[in-house]
Amino acid sequence: MPTDGYDLRHHGDQEVGDGLVDLAVNVRTGTPPPWLKKRIAASLDGLAAYPDGRAARDAVAVRHGRPPGEVLLTAGAAEAFVLLARALSPRRAVVVHPQFTEPEAALLDAGHAVERVLLSGSDGFRLDPALVPDDADLVVIGNPTNPTSVLHPAADIAALARPGRTLVVDEAFMDAVPGESESLAGRRDLPGLVVLRSLTKTWGLAGLRIGYVLADPARIGELERAQPLWAVSTPGLTAISACVESAALAEAAEAALRIAADREYLAARLREFAGLEIAGDAPAGPFLLVRLPGADVVRERLRDLGFAVRRADTFPGLGPEWLRVAVRDRDTTDRFAEALGKALVG
């Protein structure tokens, strides 16, 4: 779906090929862990019955300190964008870019007009709430934002909430932030707030498609009526319950700390290259957005050297000089830095 030159339906998995080291997809390596695989495999004995999501919904509700009626389980966070586009009838829909492009694509597919608020690299892609039109009745923003890795202050996002407006916050990568600072998932006092969560990135379950929506009961009801029956499979429901248990949350918290340390190492290695710029003053996601001259050519050279990185010119507000690089372990980063050095000199 090219729109204004941006292919909104291009995603990192399209960059990956046989034999390439994957730095294009933001799914944590070494996942899912063995204990989670075992739980999911055990659920297969129940496939003859229709999925029953009540236990998983209750578990998510407990995890975020909300009533079960404020939770909707979805086939990944991406499904939630489609449900919002189907259920809502916005007069003025605004998507804050650069960010994950599926929200805009879903709105356009549903026949809605979409306006863009473009954050500037010169400001570190930081949100200025004043940029969002006062009469926008649907606002979509990511936090931390894909692909910029910027973590916006919760207060700045909360300032966008108001009666008569639906404020959608995509927190798909929030569990990769130590302490989940700046999350709005537990806020029940903000009018029109809708928080989306994904369990596919941290737990390596992109192929299983699991996520959920947190919102007031009326909004959850609207989205549920737009959702097909049994949208989340029995294995998916089992995984949701498992991933919000206390032991899993502790494991995710430890992984977030490792990701933060590995991100700092990746940033340090990238800063060794003259002319390469890392977006944002304090990247917080499991990826970095970088700008360098001739990035489109460098990306192809990296492929020849065995590494896949994500082109970023499909994100509104970015051009061909930008690339997104996933955070990996230090050995992989060292090998990538060596390949990048070769790619930069041709």
Give a structural overview.
By secondary structure, the protein is α/β, with parallel strands linked by helices. The chain folds into 2 domains: 2-30 and 249-345, Alpha-Beta Complex (Aspartate Aminotransferase, domain 1), CATH 3.90.1150; 34-247, Aspartate Aminotransferase, domain 2, CATH 3.40.640.10. It is 35% helix and 17% strand. The protein contains 11 helices and 14 strands. The strands form 3 sheets. It has a 7-stranded mixed β-sheet with strand order 4-10-9-8-7-5-6, with helices on both faces. β11 and β12 (287-291) form a beta hairpin. α2 (54-64) runs parallel beside α8 (234-243) and α3 crosses α7 (217-226). The longest helix is centred in the last third of the chain and has 25 residues, at 246-270. The protein is globular. The model has no long low-confidence stretch (mean pLDDT 97).
Low-confidence stretches: none
Reported for the largest beta sheet, the result is: 7 strands, mixed
Question: What is the count of helical runs?
Answer: 11
CATH-scheme architecture of the largest domain: 3-Layer(aba) Sandwich
In order across it, which strands form the biggest sheet?
4-10-9-8-7-5-6
Structural class: alpha/beta
Number of domains: 2
Name the shape in a single word.
globular
Mean pLDDT: 97
Distance between the termini: 32 Å
